[in-house]
């Protein structure tokens, strides 16, 4: 159960796997995602994104802390490898979705995802990666969940299918007020579709908040090398006497610099590059 107005909440969440690695996959994660947001979950390989999504889906148990999500029947989870029953046909898979979600199944949403892109009689094991993604997304949207947890949902799709399905997903989420948490490495795909950001690195949250607030708090500046205090320098590079920096502002920027507002991609790249050197 989650608090009113909150779709997903973590409180000092930590996950340590057994086996040889025995490291913390996630540590001290605290966040509260408001309902109705489309949240990008970003971070380098091994940052803990899939672990966080699996914990949210209730498929893993936290080692420490807690994560609160809607009950299983109110959430849909699409794992990175899109597991489906290999021997069923596409039509049988959707029929199974309908039967497993009585009274809630949204046939129109599921069909919209399928469009005319797939033969209903095709057997799942014969589908390409992108075609399996389409079936998995059809099942997820058909479930009419409050919370959609999508682990790199667009990774296998060709550019046209990605564009079409991303648009469809965003329109569906907006129409129904669904909360979406979507991990992705394709930063351009997130621009314009996500309004909330969670950036993970080394199992810890490095950035969390509404995209517009995070963008408004940062400035890209270029100019002569100088002390940037009192601002927080996220990333800086110097070429000769020229400085280029991404800062998190503390008050107005005063000085001989040219400034511009960062794009989401600028912001993510700067924080990802900085996190590389940060202690995990
Ligand atoms: N089943 C497992 N057993 C042991 N360690 C695991 C297991 N799954 C993940 N890990 C470890 O936990 C850490 C986080 O992995 P996770 O898959 O959550 O990262 P990710 O951000 O989703 O990465 P990617 O972008 O590559 O998908 C990694 O160090 C990984 O090796």
From TrEMBL:
Read off the InterPro entries from this record: AAA+_ATPase, ABC_transporter-like_ATP-bd, ABC_transporter-like_CS, ABC_Transporter_VariousFunc, P-loop_NTPase
Q: Which SUPFAM superfamilies match?
A: P-loop containing nucleoside triphosphate hydrolases (SSF52540)
Q: Which Gene3D superfamilies match?
A: P-loop containing nucleotide triphosphate hydrolases
GO: which molecular function terms? ATP binding; ATP hydrolysis activity
Q: Which Pfam families match?
A: ABC_tran (PF00005)
Please name the CDD domains in this protein's record.
ABC_DR_subfamily_A (cd03230)
The ABC transporter domain sits at: 8-227
Q: Which UniProt keywords apply?
A: ATP-binding, Nucleotide-binding, Transport
The record's listing under SMART domains reads: AAA
Q: What is this protein called?
A: Putative ABC transporter ATP-binding protein
Q: Which organism is it from?
A: Streptomyces venezuelae (strain ATCC 10712 / CBS 650.69 / DSM 40230 / JCM 4526 / NBRC 13096 / PD 04745)
Supply the source organism's classification: Bacteria, Bacillati, Actinomycetota, Actinomycetes, Kitasatosporales
